[in-house]
Amino acid sequence: MKKKLLSVVLAAAMMSTLLTGCGNDTSNGSSADAPAGGQQSSETTGGQTSAEEVTLKWAIWDQETTQYWGDIKNAYEASHPGVTVEMVDLGSTDYMTVLATELSGSGTDFDVVTIKDVPGYATLVQKNAILALDDYIAADGVDLSQYAGATDQVTVDGKLYELPFRNDFWVIFYNKDLFDAKGVAYPTNDMTFAEYDALARQMTDTTFGSQVYGAHYHTWRSAVQLFGVLDGEHTILDGEYSFFKPYYEMVLNQEADGVARKYSDLKTEGLHYSAAFSGGDVAMLNMGSWFIATMISNLNSGEYDSSLCGNWGIVKYPHAEGVEAGSTLGTITGLAVTTATDTPDAAWDFVKWVSGSEGAAVMASSGNFPAIMTDEVKDMIAGLDGFPTDAESKEALTVSNLYLEVPYAPNVSEINSVLDSYHGSIMTGEISIDEGIEKMNSEVQKILNQ
């Protein structure tokens, strides 16, 4: 859908790239500014490389089905004469495991690698397979604040080994027709959890045959637990999880009162969140921004019935009292420079460009969410054919604080497993909220004390 729909936008983004140079990047990694020991492969001036030929080998996944890989390669090569980007598709299945194996070999020749998740990032850092980027970042004056706090959460012992170029964050999707039918005002970009809960209850209709669910929660633990990390004071790594309790109480009380479908029913029926929302009986759904592209594509193709869900919008995540509106959960995809590369300066320039404003414009041109959301990027996404036309939906694209679902920790995979397990036990009623939290505390403490 997007290749045809967005070809004009992509062309404009690439032309903007050619004309605007390096945007917010204030330095271009010349040999005088390069970190000690770096090998200067090609000087860069105003976003243009010298005539020296450089080939950068870049690890990715799903090249044939992911448009932005090729878009990034083409735009970067167009603005950097002499540089060739060679993409190597390692496949999406066990990508990070395959990548770690590749980088462990003595003969690896990757220059730039894509970081798919935080546990995989932790492995590469521990294996000394990727470079710390701090000297490059300081030399080039890269402003890390543009990543809304995400880089702080993947800093390891004071060092940063990746820059994010893609970011998906959570918002509230809502069905405007359902609100119109009840004469209820739409949700806003500044709702407390108490206001959100009251609105969900106001929208609920438990009449058999004409049910409307005020809210819907997918079976992932992140759909419930991670409401608790939006205050910026807690993470899933804490080892003490009493801050989850109010949100489990809210969701389970909603289930009991018919405001939301029951977790146990969703697990039994295998009902996907997309089917639930597109069915036209869910007023509000908390879900990631990746669902925006799905909504647009499936409504345009006719896979979703527009009479049921075609009139939709998004708003920012609800928040606790005293927490800034626009605080949300997110996942990032990053780029790193390998310790094996012979051209670290050229590799860094690629990472900086893709993770900067130029790369962000290329990402947005295919309907994907870059890690930095400039006004240009927001305008591009909000201008996509099928994106909601109301001002609130566009404003929802502005994130004030981004808290990673999974921040860095060496043992984060084990912690995830414990939290997943007891989330399911709480939601099915196998154990009480207090018992589940006590189990989480004790089991994660064992991991932290190893």
Q: What keyword list fits this structure?
A:
450 residues, alpha/beta, D-Maltodextrin-Binding Protein, domain 2, 2 domains, 8-stranded mixed β-sheet, 19 helices, 40% helix, globular
Description of the molecule:
This protein has 450 residues and is α/β, with parallel strands linked by helices. It has two domains: 52-168 and 331-381, Periplasmic binding protein-like II (D-Maltodextrin-Binding Protein, domain 2), CATH 3.40.190.10; 169-328 and 404-449, 3-Layer(aba) Sandwich (D-Maltodextrin-Binding Protein, domain 2). The chain is 40% helix and 14% strand. It is built from 19 helices and twelve strands. Strands 3, 4, 5, 8, 9, 10, 11 and 12 form an eight-stranded mixed beta sheet that branches. A two-stranded antiparallel sheet has the order 1-2. Strand 1 (44-45) and strand 2 form a beta hairpin. The chain is globular. Residues 1-51 have low confidence and may be disordered.
What's the CATH topology label of the largest domain?
Answer: D-Maltodextrin-Binding Protein, domain 2
* Total beta-strand segments: 12
Q: What is the mean pLDDT?
A: 88
Low-pLDDT residue intervals, each spanning 5 or more residues: 1-51
Largest sheet: 8 strands, mixed
Supply Rg.
23 Å
* Share of β-strand residues: 5-15%
| CATH class type of the largest domain | Alpha Beta
Number of domains as seen in the coordinates? 2
| Proportion of helical residues | 40-55%
Q: What separation lies between the terminal Cα atoms?
A: 50 Å
CATH architecture of the largest domain: 3-Layer(aba) Sandwich
* Annotation field: number of helices: 19
Can you say what the CATH homologous superfamily of the largest domain is?
Answer: Periplasmic binding protein-like II
Large-scale geometry: globular
Structural class: alpha/beta
